Amino acid sequence: MRGRQLTPLIMADRMTRGGSRGDKATGRQARLDMQRLVARFAREDAAAGRMPMTEYLRDRLRLGYELAL
């Protein structure tokens, strides 16, 4: 669910370079919404006692899981 919420925001942010290229207004709003959503997810994770996403990803990479690039 989180990925479905974040992916379009991340894509629009990246495609507009955070609102500095192309559709600037959409890019700026996408970046703002993405940052707010990530902050909310981090707060929710901390409140639920889940490990921070940086630790989760570090462990996945250490164990050999690679991102599909």
Give the arrangement of secondary structure elements.
Elements (H helix, E strand, L loop, with lengths): L1 H14 L8 H24 L5 H10 L7
Helix pairs in contact: 1-2
What are its keywords?
mainly alpha; 69 residues
What does this structure look like?
The chain is mostly helical. Helices cover 70% and strands 0% of the residues. It has one domain. Helix 1 packs antiparallel against helix 2. The longest helix is centred in the middle third of the chain and has 24 residues, at 24-47.
| Gyration radius over CA | 14 Å
SSE succession: HHH
How many discrete structural domains? 1
What gap, in angstroms, lies between the N and C termini? Answer: 21 Å
- The shape, in one word, is flat
Number of strands: 0
Helical content (DSSP H or I, runs of 4+): 55-70%
Q: Could you write a compact summary of the structure shown?
A:
By secondary structure, this protein is an all-alpha fold.
